[in-house]
Task: structure prediction
Amino acid sequence: TGEQVFAGSINQSGALELRAEKIGRDTSYGKIIEAVERAERSRAPVQRLADRLSGYLVYFALGAAALTFLITHNIYATISVIIVAGACGIAAGTPLAILGGIGRSARLGAIVKGGVHLETLGCVDTVVLDKTGTLTFGRPEVQHIYPMGETTEEELVEAAATAELRSEHPLGKAIVTFARAQERNIVEPATFSYTPGRGISTNTADAATILVGNQAWMLDNGINLPVASSQTNEAGSEIFVARAGRLLGSIIVADTVRPEARRAIEALHRMGIRTVLLTGDAKRVASAVGSNLGIKEVEAELLPENKLTRIQTLIGQKRVVAMVGDGVNDAPALAEANVGVAMGSGTDVAQESADVLLLGNDLERFVETLAIARRTRGIIWQNFAGTIGVDTLGILLAAFGFLNPLLAAGIHVVSELVFILNSARLLPTPEKKQAQHARSPVGKLS
Result:
């Protein structure tokens, strides 16, 4: 027919005769891999502020000591200046805080692949989310049943399941699964005919023809559809069912939104974080999901390169972006974002491209990890400010002779211990773990 088939496509039914036009890096899959590699190469290394500040404080202390000796010629004051100043609290406290943050996140089921990513996660102000498999379970389910006229729901479901019994289409499988769960009477069809992009036609033992498919399929077979029969506002695929030339009704099949998704989005908004939904699905479905979850910025019908471009645009606007996704098509965007977050059930490509992996596929764990990252960053900055303040005050007191070497050593040890213990507050403990499970899924951290 001359139509294009993407590499990696799954043929649900029938047979295909294909001619390869592109191979290797020229295929869509190859371009996705190339985009991932390019994004990873272009990522700038994050400089450790703690290491730089530690070096600056050492030079500052030595300079202050030399200046003190030149002015006062007091060897004890000079020694006190050298002793009282130090960056041990920063040098030891910063990795301890990051270790504690990563450990706490791991206990929640979020694997952070390094301190750099935890530090960046604490600066995130924009979260971009994929829909299928991230906000939803990634599997279609029957959502609503709309029988027409005197048709009952049982009759409608049984007719649809009978027609779809031999179907390999995900929507058809969802209807059959639903009917079996409801213990409906499913009859083995005598004949089965599938028209791609349209629907199914089957005959039962009583020679009645059952049609299941979209609006176009109904019209092709002379089935009139009243305007009121179409549920155009539903967030899913509407499947019409007719038997013996009479419309029985329609069934809405859609991907189910994760129950914790709305709570997670609300928590992100309370944290002042901007949320954006990027998906390859139809605009109607994407808009309905976005409206249901309270996401105002929704962009649909996007290719992987479109998602990548959108991420680049946000970063160009000086936004710190976290991308949450699960599929191969999300991999370039995951790699390009400041922080890529992959669902544990996602593809290997997505997981390799991500900086954070959610083992339990729970978005609320991502929100809590984000809160941990922010708290980790806050504690590190507390240590920075405290170290600079104590060192500056201590050097001034020592330079003017108010501190002897012994007292300077005491101040140095106590202050550094305080900063290290401040960082140690992030380390997970069994008691805090139990308390964490007793609290609501998304809340403040102790």
Remarks:
- Residues 139-256 form a domain with the Calcium-transporting ATPase, cytoplasmic domain N fold (CATH 3.40.1110.10).
- The chain is about 50% helix and 15% strand.
- The two ends are 63 Å apart (CA to CA).
- Residues 39-47, 431-446 have pLDDT under 50 and may be disordered.
